[in-house]
Amino acid sequence: MRFVIGHHGRGENNPRWKGNDVGYFAIHRWIRKKKPKPDACEDCHKATIFLDLANITGKHERNEVNYKWLCRQCHTILDQGKVTWDQVKEIRQLRKEGITYRELSMRFGCHPMNIYCICKGKSWKERGQDA
User: Fold this and answer.
1) 32, 59, 63, 75: least CB-packed within 10 angstroms?
2) CA 128 to chain centre
3) Alpha-carbon distance 130 to 14, whole Å?
4) What is the 3-state secondary structure (H, E, C) of the chain?
């Protein structure tokens, strides 16, 4: 009997489909197919060919909304501090209210330099839309 490619279907129609119960690389490979690489960082909008596919929610699922294409600088700061996009807005607001970088770093569990970069827009530039 000859095996026909695609006989069982692709994706969820395939009997070997694992859904979200797959490893890091399999999910990233799936996301790369669904979310094409742009010409610029989705956060700071710097044009570069060196973009990383970054998980911004901490949920490793087959959902392209959980991922963004970020330049190395934005991705590094996000990963070092494990700061979410909602927390970025909160950090900026608390800093405007007078909370120190050190207090914010202890509160959000990241380095004070990450807090400084967030507040000064060094890595998270204002986007004019909610992220």
Assistant:
1) 59
2) 18
3) 37
4) CCCCCCCCCCHHHCCCCCCCCCCHHHHHHHHHHHCCCCCECCCCCCECCCEEEEECCCCCCCCHHHEEEEEHHHHHHHHHHCCCHHHHHHHHHHHHCCCCHHHHHHHHCCCHHHHHHHHHCCCCCCCCCCC
Cβ within 8 Å of residue 108, ≥6 positions away: 81, 83, 87, 91, 115
CA–CA dist 127, 131 (Å, integer): 8
Above 90 in pLDDT, residue 111?
Answer: no
Paired with 53 in beta bridges are 69
Per the document, the length of the chain is: 131
- Check: CB of residue 38 under 8 Å from CB of residue 51: yes
φ/ψ of 103, rounded to 5, equals: -60, -40
54-81 pLDDT, tens digit per residue, is 888 767 778 888 899 999 888 877 766 6
User: Distance of alpha carbon 115 from its chain centroid, rounded?
Assistant: 17
CA 22 to chain centre: 18
